[in-house]
Structures are given as structure tokens and as C-alpha cells.
Amino acid sequence: MAKGFVTRQVRWSDAAEQLKAIRYTVFVEEQHVPEEEELDEYDAKCMHFLCFDKENTNTPVGCARVIDNGKIGRVAVYKEYRGKGVGVELMLACTRYSVEVLQKTPKLDAQLSALTFYEKLGFVAHGQEFMDAGIPHKHMTYALSSFISSTPSNDDHSSSEHKATDSSFSQHTRHNGDNVTPIRQPVIGYPDVTAQLSDTLSTSRGTLYLCCPELLINVFNADNTHSALSAFFKSHNRNQLQLILDVNTSENLPTEGLLSLAKRLPSRVTIRTLTDETVRFDSVKLLADHHEWVATLENTQIIAHRRRLSDHQFQMAKEHFERMWEHESEDNPNFREVRI
């Protein structure tokens, strides 16, 4: 979460006046979008998000919405709050809702002036430039969720989704074309999954970035995985692991394997936990030397995917993890007893 701000899910029936106030100021008054085009039939049906300053939780400072096909839109932030992370806070909430609740690939139509902002959040532009409410746009699709489809759907023109720019990021980013690296055939079952994970670890160097739910931490405690992880640390004294867990206590976690390794190598393994106790990871996600490895449970069966990332894709995924590390996780005293 962005420091100083909190985002809430709301319905149009409960927060229409607050949502309309922000959107009217940003889109109609600032960007001269025709008022009759600003509201549409999706407002009453989709999920909306309001971002509040923690010092004044009665007045929202930004908003966004997600319609049922995973399309994010109407991202608007009051001018005086731009560049403070409000747009990032809203986009993280919308992206998570699209993936975890709707189980859809997040997508959006971005104003050309905001392309860099959305690229930094893991979205990739595709297709031709087009006009929406008199403003040039491009379609964008979230390219970092390898457990869901990365192929843009054909219904991107389904609604007018003009955007406001939040200038939190100012560095220009390049992307390597419109194609997303294809996902390889998944492996199924504990032995094959841990074998693929071990292979991924054995060819990695540098820093491993890992998000892991409590239910799947045992994949790192298998003998072959533990051996590969130990070899990873022995191969170079600068190799490290940053791990975000979705649990707040170490009581129910196995003390062997990953946690015992963390106890032996406290300067090489750093573990934090999510700040929001209601949020749970639905899969393991590992970034390892330009590879993305994802494992999830489907009907009690564990399934894993691995794919090679381009330099740009890896950089975006790394920055996404770092934002979560900085803004959505924290050092947890419950883990200090096992010296993590």
C-alpha cells in the first residue's frame, strides 16, 4: 500500500456521488471529455475503488473501476495528489481484483501520456493508436501473470475507458514489441513440480524474488528443492533470497527446509509478511534470473508453469515485487524467534 493512503472497494449504489465528483473534475473539467460520455451503463454493474488519504478518510482523492471482463478504467486522481502514489495504490488494487476475484487478465485503454506509468506497473501496449473522447489511446494488457492468459481479447473496444495520468513515474521505459513470452506446458504433481523448481534454482544467480502462500511453502522443503537452494547460496556469496509470506506467525510452518536455511543464513535470506491480514496469495511466484516460475493448487493437485522473460518483462516483474516489498509487506516480529 502507498504510505499515507488506503483503498476501498465500493459499489456505485453506495458511492456514486463521491465517484462522480472525482471523475467530473478530472475528465470533464480538466480533460474536456463530454459529460454525456463520462457515465455509462457499466458503472452500476462493476466494482469501483476509492483511495483515501489516511489523515482524512471521509474524502476520497482518487478512483478507478474494474468491469467484469477484467478491464480497468476511469482511473482518476485529483491534481494535488498526483505524483504521491495514489495512482499506484489504485492500480495495484484493481489488478489484484481482476486476477484474484474475477480471474481475468487485467487490461485497460491508456492515454498515450500515461503509457510509461502503466508499463512500470506491468502492462504492455499493443495494437494501433485510437481516439477515445477526443484523446489518443492504446490498448494495454497485464503481462506478468503467467498462470492466466496473456493474450489480449477482442472486446477491448467494449467501453470508453479514458484515463487520468498520475505522474508517480517519470522514467521512460521501452518494451520489446507486443508479444508476451509464451507459457510452456505445465507440469503436474509434487515430484515433477519440485523437479522443475530445482532445475530453475540450479541455473539461477543473483537475487531470488519469491511470494509464497502458507499452503505451498512445502515445495521448498522437498529434498531436491532444499539441495538446489543450498547449492544456490554456496555457488556465489552474493546470491540472496527475498521472500514475502502471506502468514503472520511461524507457529504452523515447518521449521525444516526453507526456514532452517533462513536461520543459518540470516544475511542472505530476508522474509517479510503481508501487511493486510485479509490478503492471501493464491500461488507461489518466483522470479529467478529472467525466469518466472508459478505454482498453484487446482482441485488439490499442484500445477506449475515456467517461462523465460525478456529483459523488459523481468525488470517490470522485479519492480512490481519491489513495490509490494516496500508498500505491502513488513518485517514481522513473529519470525524473529527463528532468526529470519
From TrEMBL:
Pfam families tied to this protein: Acetyltransf_10, DUF7931
CDD domains: NAT_SF (cd04301)
Annotated ranges, domain N-acetyltransferase: 5-145
TM regions (residue ranges): none
Region feature (Disordered): 153-185
Cross-referenced InterPro entries: Acyl_CoA_acyltransferase (IPR016181), DUF7931 (IPR057691), GNAT_dom (IPR000182), GNPNAT1-like (IPR039143)
Name of the protein this chain belongs to: N-acetyltransferase domain-containing protein
Organism: Marinibactrum halimedae
